[in-house]
Amino acid sequence: MRKEILELEQSVLNLDLKDNRRTDFNEKVVNYLNNFIDNLKDKNGFESDFSSSELIFEHPFNANGYPIEEILNLFENAVNSNGIQPASGAHIGYIPGGGIPTAAYGDFIAAMTNKYSGIYFANPGAINIENHILNWFAKLFGFNLKRYGGNLTTGGSIANLISIVAARDKHNIKGADYEKTVIYGSAQMHHCIHKAIRISGLSECIYREIPLEKNFHLNIKSLEKQLIEDTKNGLTPFLIICSAGTTDTGVVDDLDTIGDLANQHKCWFHVDAAYGGFFHLLEEHKGTFKGIEKADSLVIDPHKGMFLPYGSGAVLVKDRADLLKTNYYLANYMKDAYSGHEHLSPADLSPELSRNFRGLRIWLPLLFHGTQVFKDALKEKLLLTQYIYNEFEKMEFIEVGPRPELTVFTFRFICKNKDPSSLNQQILEQMHKDGRIFISSTKIENEVWLRVAILSFRTHLKEIELLIEMVEKHFKNQFKSSIA
Questions:
Q1: For residues 225 and 214, what is the distance between their CA atoms, to the nearest angstrom?
Q2: What is the distance of C-alpha 452 from the center of its chain?
Q3: DSSP strand E in 112-205: where?
């Protein structure tokens, strides 16, 4: 048996890439990534031919593996050569995840050292890094540092779910209460919140979709009227959800007034600022977010406004006791981990026990770059958005949506005797085949509108002017074909 163990040991040592194999492996991977970044400027924002993705299935897992060169070549051809290119500044469609290189190195260090960041006992430094980040977030948004609770999540979907469940348990909402419990949202509410309501078991509550104003803000008078009416009818207003940067149109609701209404009617006030929250870093835009500090729960996504890789979200809750009530558990096998200290851990404040050390991808860039470059990038995106909106506004064949409050806005092509939705769908398909710049579409009041979402740190004036060129080209092409 001992001989067999030693033979197996020699095989297992290969996992550590011994005998200079790690240096060679690292060099080839880093060279590939450097070439990828250096050549991004020449890549399309979208490749509509997906056929190369099937190459993945031509490389079955085998006993001895493949050379790293072959694997990187496969990745380039099957993964990096089709679909959306979110690392590119040409991605101006869905709100992108940024992917700054320093964040990737944070992930590399976290994965290689394999520090566990779920429990303080396992690695106090890792927990302190994450708490340091969360304290910075909390201070930025006006939360009480001695009272709040927070967690770094994989994104807005999980952060919203944590918030909704905390609200449910804070208000002791049970199954018997559903038929009289009321949740308030709007048509601009992100769909992941509807999913969170369903997963949390609250989908049988009464849901009120509050009407929107013409500029797509939640209508305050309608909300107030509905709250009063529901209370008079013996119902229990429970949860008010609003947005600080909607996905479709980029608007920020009147957080200050809605926060006061929530307090007046004893509702949990939830703010989804996944997209828009970090614009609060800019002094000249703090007024846009007035009242955000009134939130009982707040969702922000560093993988949006801080340009980090996908998988970087955060939730802040006004009272950490509300997170503990839902998430805190003890287990016999973990008694050592909870003895001798009073520090809270991520596992106490979220559903996750096993989790990656995701704080390093935020901490390293902030320490290395400082905060000013993030502010400069956000301001650049705001100015680029105003620039292209103004250019579109001058074009007689374009109808623009409301003036952008942040960096998302809608527009559509118009042509006499042509159905707007059909026309815009056809032009969008042409633009996707072109692929140099990627934009997306949405439906507002059952009409197709096109969306511009400028948030990639690699999107600069060159990409914006190319989009303007594409818009003119593809409208003219479509107009000619419609005349024919």
A1: 18
A2: 16
A3: 149-153, 181-186
Q: Please state, in angstroms and rounded to a whole number, the distance separating the CA atoms of residues 455 and 390.
A: 18
272 — phi, psi (to 5°)? Answer: -95, 100
Ramachandran quadrant class, 205 (left: phi over 0; alpha: psi -120 to 50; beta: rest): beta
The side-by-side arrangement of strands in the sheet containing 398-400 is 398-400, 408-413, 447-453, 440-444
| Nearest Cα residue to 278 out of 330, 236, 313 | 313
Closest CA to 310 of 440, 456, 134: 456
The pLDDT of residue 483 is 41
Q: Order of strands across the sheet with 181-186?
A: 149-153, 313-317, 297-300, 268-273, 236-243, 181-186, 206-210
Read off the pLDDT band of 338 (50, 70, 90): low
Pair of tokens at residue 31: 């060279």
- CATH number, domain 372-483, options 1.10.1160.10, 3.40.50.150, 3.90.1150.170, 3.10.450.50: 3.90.1150.170
Q: What stretch of H or E contains 238?
A: strand 236-243
CATH of 108-369, one of 3.40.190.10, 1.20.120.520, 3.40.50.300, 3.40.640.10: 3.40.640.10
pTM over 0.70: yes
